[in-house]
Amino acid sequence: MNIEGRDLTIGYPDHTVGRGLDVALSTGEVLALLGPNGGGKTTLLKTLLGLLKPKAGEVRLGDKPLDEYSVRERARFIAYVPQVHIGTFAFTVETVVLMGRTAHGNLFSRPTTHDRAVAHSVLERFGISGLANRPYTMISGGERQLVLLARALAQEPRFIVLDEPTASLDFGNQGKVMNEIQALAKSGHGVLFTTHDPNHALRAADRAYLLRDGVRITDGPAAIVLNREQLKALYQASIEQLIDKDSGAVAFLPG
Amino acid sequence: MTRSALPGLAIATGVLIAGLLLAFTIGRYPVSLAELGHVLFAKISGHRPDASPAVESVILQVRGPRVLAAALVGAALAVAGTAFQGLFRNPLVSPDILGASSGAALGAVIGIFLSLGVLAIQGFAFVGGLLAVAAVYVIGSAVRARDPILVLVLTGVVVGALLGAGVGLVKYLADPYNQLPAMTFWLLGSLAAANASDLLPLFGPVAIGTAVLIALRWRMNVMSLPEEEARSLGVATGPLRVAIVAAATLTTSASVATAGIIGWVGLVVPHLSRSLVGPDFARLLPTAAILGGGYLLLIDTLARTAAEVEIPLGILTAVIGTPFFIWLLASMQRTWS
Asked: Span B6-335: which CATH code?
């Protein structure tokens, strides 16, 4: 199964953010979306999620246009992990994860025993069962990111879309989230994430999509398109490339 | 869940029972608990009460309707406040955020200005509240913006100000000896005029609105997340928001029509309820309803008995609500930080 955006013009009623964008995501792969601030990453993300209508072109999910799915059907295929936020009310971690089950119930239903079982199994998968009864407002930023990941997984979706999943995390938690993203693809999910760090894309993504000023610079296998020249073109900045002598692994430094 | 809802619910129920007992027994004509028990038992079982007819009349005719009205109005305002705070993701929101109170106020002062009967004035207030919120909703939705919630709140503030100007105009034009005192009294909020015939028009809308909100309790949890997150979790936020606003407006308008403008209950009680049972609407809504009823009963009893003349309810709820709210801010940040 895949999500596919064809010749998309994206943006808001009052202004257009990007044009002529083709992007596809299949189950079992990780796609990283990179680009400078204001370049259209988030807008493209929201368009692929169905939160924003494309101004032209079409987003398809499987064999149907995305807008032929109801909000609820869509939520059973695609889960969204927003940037970590604190939240207004002190729901417990368990309740937050159970909210991921909403699309599996009807308008009036409460979480069932099965929903609770699913929630507990995803909490276990991320090793945060111990947090189940803690208020979501009182755990650390890294824990919150894992809780939002757990909530997405509780939706039992085919695709998971993450908006800057590493932005507010410490170094250790960044690595942890990268590992979880790869594990999600291994378990058959299609994963799309935005990031400001090309190294994260190199680490976790199969493919990378480079977006500047609403225009695709390039896309393709992460190890190939993420090179010094492309990144210089993408960020219009000087970039230093490091290569580990033993493993051949590559990393980039800005400046 | 961190804890069971039972202790919190028990405290709320305790407040309601205390409110009921105090409201029935305290007053210019004191009634003992034994007399209250006899009369209520006799009423239920159909026996002749062995209390004096005067006591029976005080309990059933004088205080009974007012007690029930206070409990219903308190519950209605607390439930509506709880719903709006969740919907607008803001713990500082109260039930009149979308103009229900100002619309009802304008309806009521127009009714008084036209020298209409009590029922017609209440009808004007009820319809005024509904119309004001409907207008805010239509205008707010017509403005195309990225943040529909913010636009809705701002439209509510603006329309509320306009309606307030309308109230001012009607007061300015009113007969200062007959109509103006009635308007002022009404705008300050009071249950002094509550009688048995008020109860059905109050109970109907409050019961319907509360039932709708309780039926949607799980979706309301999700609705308290940011808009796009709620949609990505499978909630059709637009239609659901209309349903929640309509239900909360129904309860608010019915209570404002009966009791005039009583501020603070819909702001303070949801906070208190959250600190008792947490933010999950499944337990929060019933707790807020029970606690709101008890809270307003206690305040109404104070309004009746604290001074020689009755103190307007809206003044007491503000005098008690303000320091209470500051105390809440200082001590309970964790419940909604």
From this structure: 1.10.3470.10
